[in-house]
């Protein structure tokens, strides 16, 4: 049977292209016609200008250096694991937390915002209870926006913009199905774009909703752009200046074997990592993205993830390490050592994509 004909129709008004695919006429009657929308490519620079994306500068002359960047990754409803880690930091690592920068991607923006606001403004256990009691299928965009708007109005303090100033960045992006996605800089392809300044409460609230948007068919409107989604299309969490120590916190372990999402350059052991390894991959998928399947069993498992997150953080021994130790360790190869990393560091240019093998 010959291949179906393909006809591309371009609208004279808006320039939108539609591919018409017509199959052969059969004796049963007229052929079905399948319409497939081809979105016009997004210009990444224009898009970044609209949303006013700017990566925060962590290392500046005359300013104290953050002890760490605490990067919370996207994990759907398994954000309860990350909330357990956040509770430990809030209770037992107050000095580290006070001198760290917080970075959120996907649902990881929730613990990042909560920690940046502080324990007096946002109660982590109230946030956890709201999440496990208001579960939904992550692709149900209407229910997601309704639930998140209710949670923001109920739990986020009105002075949140003042509380998080200079301490927080949220990650956004646009669809990786967009023809313009791969024309971005390499660091934006992998780690999205960063928003670190907000004008008012509503601006921050809309950023939280857009930064957690998972459905590529139903993007969010944020500032001047109408195609904003989470910034975790090709990695689970984001990163900033790699000369500052990062601790990556992943409530969801990633794809099977994690091959396609192991994007972070955990080079020479400088950075830290806490990952959820307490549930099998199929169970993690259910818990993170379809928490209604299984009824109250999923709720109990999400609460269990909260507990194991706290215990993992308590057992973790690498929250703080001596910079002098890194200076010596950086001259020794590690398990992740390869020639491309060495070449990028010795002979790379000034841009992040040249200095670090992304």
UniProtKB/TrEMBL annotation:
The chain crosses the membrane at residues 68-89, 96-116. GO terms for cellular component: cytoplasm; lipid droplet; membrane. One of its GO terms (biological process) is triglyceride catabolic process. InterPro entries: Acyl_Trfase/lysoPLipase, PLPL. Keywords: Membrane, Transmembrane, Transmembrane helix. GO terms for molecular function: triacylglycerol lipase activity. PANTHER family: CALCIUM-INDEPENDENT PHOSPHOLIPASE A2 IPLA2 -RELATED, PATATIN-LIKE PHOSPHOLIPASE DOMAIN-CONTAINING PROTEIN 4. This is PNPLA domain-containing protein. It comes from Leishmania tarentolae.
């Amino acid at each position: 049977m010959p291949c179906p004909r393909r006809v591309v129709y371009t609208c004279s008004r808006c320039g939108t292209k539609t591919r018409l695919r017509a199959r052969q006429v059969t004796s049963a009657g007229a052929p079905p016609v399948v319409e497939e929308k081809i979105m016009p490519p997004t210009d990444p620079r224009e898009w970044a200008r609209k949303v006013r994306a700017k990566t925060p500068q962590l290392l500046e002359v005359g300013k104290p250096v953050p002890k760490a960047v605490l990067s919370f990754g996207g994990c759907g409803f398994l954000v309860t694991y990350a909330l357990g880690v956040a509770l430990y930091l809030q209770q037992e690592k107050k000095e580290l937390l006070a001198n760290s920068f917080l970075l959120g991607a996907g649902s990881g923006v929730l613990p990042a915002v909560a920690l940046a606001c502080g324990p007096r403004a946002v109660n982590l256990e109230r946030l956890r209870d709201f999440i496990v009691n208001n579960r939904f299928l992550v692709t149900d965009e209407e229910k997601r926006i309704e639930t998140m708007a209710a949670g923001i109005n109920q739990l986020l303090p009105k002075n949140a913009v003042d509380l998080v100033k200079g301490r927080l960045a949220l990650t956004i992006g646009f669809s990786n199905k967009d023809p313009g996605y791969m024309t971005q800089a390499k660091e934006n392809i992998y780690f999205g774009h960063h928003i670190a300044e907000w004008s008012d409460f509503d601006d921050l609230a809309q950023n939280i909703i857009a930064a957690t948007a998972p459905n590529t068919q139903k993007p969010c409107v944020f500032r001047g752009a109408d195609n904003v989604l989470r910034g975790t299309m090709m990695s689970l969490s984001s990163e900033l200046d790699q000369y500052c120590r990062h601790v990556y916190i992943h409530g969801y372990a990633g794809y099977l074997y994690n091959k396609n999402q192991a994007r972070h350059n955990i080079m020479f052991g400088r950075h830290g990592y806490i990952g959820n390894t307490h549930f099998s991959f199929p169970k993690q998928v259910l818990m993170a993205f379809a928490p209604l399947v299984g009824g109250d069993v999923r709720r109990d498992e999400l609460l269990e993830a909260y507990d194991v997150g706290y215990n993992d953080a308590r057992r973790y021994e690498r929250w703080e390490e001596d910079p002098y130790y890194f200076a010596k360790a950086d001259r020794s190869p590690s398990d992740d050592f390869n020639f491309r990393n060495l070449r990028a560091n010795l002979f790379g240019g000034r841009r992040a994509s040249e200095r670090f093998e992304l």
